[in-house]
Each structure stands twice: as C-alpha cells, then as structure tokens.
C-alpha cells in the first residue's frame, strides 16, 4: 500500500476547474499549506486540556517545507510544572548547556500539537512527569491585575402604590443602590451605598461599605482597609472600620478548594487507580510502583465515603474505603486559613465605637482532624475559641468551645461559655443524607462582641432600651431521604431556639415530599411554627411546576397554601422567554388570598429586557384593595483609557473587550452583550483566579472587518478589570464581478492584488471574487499565471460607506489586459 502523501504534496488538476472553456490557471501556490515559522510565538499553552497561560514559546526549525516545533528549555519546563529531576542524564546535560528540545524527545509518551489558527499549543504529558501540583493550577504570574479604570454600578427602582381607598393618595417610593470603584495598579477602591426616597419628603442615603483592597500573593491573602465586615467563620460577623488581612480560598486551584481527604496507597506495579463515590468516578490515573498520594480530589459536599480500587498490571484488584464527610470548618491535610482584624466596631445603636482585635486560624492536620482557634479582644471584653472538625466513618463532627469574659458596669466581670456541635453524614446503605445537624448552647454569662457592648451601654444609662434577645440555645436538623425510583424524595427540617431574657421556645419544623411525573414536578409539605410567645400555626403547602412548549421556554408554576387559622392563598405564574436571543422575559401572575375571612384577588405582570447597556424592568398589578406599578433599571458605567462604556449589571470581577472597528460583534455565553461603536464591550462577570474563556462571535459584524482571532483566555485577580484586545483587519470589502473584454471568464483561483501587490482575495465561481482591503478608488490586478499575458487589470470606485449594512457591496468591473487602456468602472 502506497504511503499517503503529506499535505505539502497535494496537487490540483486545473483542467477540472476550467471545464475546457476558460484559460488555464496556475494553482501551485495552493499546493503547500502555511508552514509554522521558527522563532518565538506568544501562544496559549494547555497541558492535558488544562490551560497553563499565554507564554512565549520558542519554535525550532526542522528543515525546509517543514513546520517548526515547540522547543523547551529548563526554565520553561519548570514554569510548566514538569518534574525535571526525572529527566535522563543526557537530556539534563543538553538542557544545562542552554539548549532546548522538543517535548517528544524529553518525555516518554508525551506529544504536542500546535493549532496555528487558534494559536494554541496542546501538550499531552503522563502524570509521572508532572510535579505534585494540581492540573488546574495556574501560576500566579498569569493572574491578571487588570487595567486602571473606574466604574459605577446602579440598581434603580421606582415603586408606585395606589390604595383603592380614595382618601389615600398615590404613594411613591424610590431606591437607588450604588456600587462604585476605581482600580489603581494592584489596589481596588470600593464604595457601596443606597439612596431611598418617597413623595412624602423622606430621603436618606446610607453607606454600606467603603474600603481599599489588594492581593498579598505570596500569602494567598487579601488586605482590606476601610469599612467592611469580619468573615464570620468562627465568631459572629460584625461591621468595622479598620484593617483586615485574611486568606482567600479562591486563590487555590479549584481542585484544592473545599474539603476532600487525601487518598494514600501502595502500588506493586504500574497500576490503575480509580476513586469512586456512590458509584461515580471522581478520579482515575496510572501510578508508578511504590507509594502514591492523590491530594487533588474535588470537594463533593456530603456525598459519602470514597471507594478506592487499585488494578495492578497482572489484573489483580485491591480495594479499600476512605471516610468522607465534611462539616463547614473541615480543611484538607496541610491547608490553613486565617484572618486578622483590627478596627472599631460599627453598630447604629452604639453611642461609642469600641476598638477591637480579632484573629482566627484553621489548619488541616490530617484526614481525620482539622483544628481551629480564635481570639477577640476589646476594652472590657475578651473571648477565646478552640475547636476541631473530625472526619470519621461514623460521620463528620465539629465541636468548639468559646470562653468569653465581659465587664458590665455595676455587675463586675461576667464569664460564660458557648458550646457549638455540628454533625454531617450520608448513610450509604439507605442513602440518607444528614446534611447538617447543629446545636449551640450558651451560658447566661456569655455575650458575643456586639451584645456585650450593647449591655455595657445600657447599664451605663447611655441607652434607654435593651431590645435584643440573649440566646440560650439553638438546634437545627436537616434530613434528606431519596426513595427508590420512581417514588421521589422525603425531606425534614427542624429548629428550636431558646433565650435567657425571654420565656418560651421558638419551634419550627416541616416535613415534605417531592417528585415528578413526566414534565410535571410537584411537592407537598406540612410545617408547624410555635413562637416563644405561644402563638402557633400549622401550614400545608402544595407546589406544581410544568414546562411548556417543545423548547420548554415557558414554565407554569402554581403554589397553594392553607393555615390552621383558615387563611389560604393560591398563586399561578406563567414565566417565559419572548425571543430567541433570551433578551426579553416575562411573567404573568394570578393570585387569590383569604385572610380573616376576607378574600382578595390580584392580577400582575412583569417584563425584563436585557439590552447591551442595561437591564430594564417593569411591572403592573391590580388587586381588590390596591394597584401597583414599578419601573427599574440595572447596569453600570465603566470609564477607562479608551473612553466610557455602558454595561449590564456587574459582579465583583469583570472585564473589558476591545476589538477595533468590530462594532456589533457578540460576546458568546453572555446574553445581549455586543461591542459598541468604539469597539468596546464589558464582560459582566468573570471568575477570579480561574481560567475564563472569552469568545467573540462575528455574527452581525460588518464584512469590512476581519477578526484575526476569536478566543482568548484570562485569569483575573479578584476585583480586577482585565483588558482583552482582539486584533482585527479593517478595509472596505466588496464582491467584485469581473468581466473580460473578450467575453471570457476570469480563471477560477486567480489572485486579486492591489496596487502594492498585496493579495486581497481569490476569484471563485462565475468570475466573482470577495475582496477586503479596498480603498475608496483604485486599480486591481488579477493574475492566473507567471506570464504578462496571464493577467488583467480593473479600475474601481466605491460609493460612500453605509455602516449600517452588514452585507458587502457588489461591483461590476471590466478586466483589461495590461497593455490596453482601462475601461470606466460600472457601479
């Protein structure tokens, strides 16, 4: 069997194209593809389908008419996480002499593939050659701090209420929420606040937070200065003005976030290791003989124990299990989390704002135990916490004790303890999920930081009332029990709360059942509430949800409830998408409720429109007692070096796209986000410290613009505004209908050149050519061979450009031999 010819050896038979009627054409230039040139290429690098960054990679020539191949030196191998200590002595000596070698030469079973069109280098590397870092690890040098820019996000809503009682006039209330910020280098300045007003003359602006923040990369932490909140992991979260330094788990690779145990074992040969949880494969790899360790399992919540199977080279299989349940404060072995806060306590009810310090520290000792401790100190108050989280075969337990001491005026020092116990477990035999069971008990002398200073203020006589409840104990339980198919699922929730300064107990519990029948999803629940004051109520609730239409773009939801007192409510809502682009959504609701024997009906509707620059909403309702209407708008304004760009609502981390002349291009995966007239668009949301793939869709783009690339990757820091610039080629475009003076067709495959010899296009069927890069007027040269007689020239003149038209203009021109005068163009 003959060898298959290389792509560079492909030949075209021009006779098939001419059909015997047209002049022969030289197609030899199409017989060879584009050759990857030697030199440095700035490209995206992937290892086993995981993006590693956009790097400068040297390409080394392999000879004439052959692609240059990626070449790797020691520094580049270290940057990519390759275990260079495992290289052969020969290869190590070659690399130490400042040489570089292809990955296929350096590593057994490795290979590379370069996609010239997308500028991506994909490497396939066996796990044995990789250092003990997660595959989804992105080097901090690739984290993008973004550009200098400012923004102002807004959430505006105006609400009108018209009671049916004519004695009461129209009531109007307004709300404007603001989140603003400026990014300067590595610093992020933020302010959040809200303005409320009414037609009764009330107007108030309330600041929620104002702070400056930046990454402390070596510590995987965030430094925050200003007005914000403590984390609330160990002690209760409080508002403060001051400084906080805290670790940020988002900086860890995704596979290292959350708790998952380390799986350790020993292989007797090159063995296959499979880790399953409830029958689902979480991890599969091949390991070398000897001890192995798998520490990059992704967290799966409370899913059950891990089953590990080791299949040796001779087929022998060994299995064992690893307990896996987690409570919120569990950490992976070797991981730690901390925060340190210094500032003044903020509370509207406090006359004086005390200075306090708070420190928290957590550490994963091993698969079994995570330890944590905390300290809060202020003048007249101190609290110390110590605890741990256990991961056992019986489930996950969390237990901590807080000792607090408070000096109360006239009462001296009050000491107390608070005990917190949590538990989580999935029973594999019955698949029962005890998602969370907590209990907290506090002695009478225990106060948290805010309650302590509210008490001190009250006892000093600077506060006239003490209206908070001093909690004594709280217990909560959540159970989930899937039934055998197709019998649905049962769930139970219960909670009980008692107070030191108030008699009685708050009790809440509910039992529910949910299932589906074909498209219909339904649920039934019964709840009982009993407040500490003795008020009781039982409520039955039924919910139904039915998707409508072939594409399920509409959903009908019904909710009905009835209480022990005879109060009832029935509500039905139809929601849907009104267009194929998901820009316009709507909701129609009909409801009827009966309270204290009186019935009230209500009809309402709402619309939400997502435009490229904002989200606009509106609602109307008409009921037995009241009519209501509202208008809203959500969006943002982003100011940057290229101007001002309007945007849809923003998350904490967002980006900016620039593609010159590419107005109208869409951002894939983002509804209604398009580039504006200046060639900019705001990416409304990005995931910090993760690889984000941004793709430009040229649909709707003028044919005068060519995108040189449509995909980019970015790994932004939290709060950063990265700029992704897409290169474009701009020039007037047209479909040129060529007519030779002798009546013959211009040969298929002929090149169309401008006056400087730059190729603008190729002649296709029917003597037509699509060309881009035209001037307002000029001359084209059409060649189909190397002889002077194998060419002709055509003059053209374009009309004034209409930027609203996407389709190219069609020109009809005469193609004249070079030695003849030009014919006047036909427009």
Quick description:
The protein has 5 helices and 51 strands.
Tell me about this structure.
- The protein has 827 residues and is mostly beta strands.
- Among the domains are: 39-133, Ubiquitin-like (UB roll); 148-186 and 567-728, Sandwich (Immunoglobulin-like), CATH 2.60.40.2610; 262-322, Outer membrane usher protein (Immunoglobulin-like), CATH 2.60.40; 732-815, Immunoglobulin-like (Sandwich).
- The protein is globular.
- Residues 1-8 and 821-827 have low confidence and may be disordered.
CATH class category label of the domain at 148-186 and 567-728: Mainly Beta
Give the helix tally.
5
What's the CATH architecture of the domain at 148-186 and 567-728? Sandwich
N-C termini distance: 56 Å
If you compute it from the alpha carbons, what radius of gyration comes out, rounded to the nearest whole angstrom? 35 Å
The CATH homologous superfamily of the domain at 148-186 and 567-728 is called Outer membrane usher protein FimD, plug domain
Instruction: Report on the biggest sheet.
Output: 24 strands, antiparallel, barrel
Count of extended strands: 51
Shape: globular
Share of β-strand residues? over 45%
Instruction: Please mark out the parts with pLDDT under 50 across 5 or more consecutive residues, or reply none.
Output: 1-8, 821-827
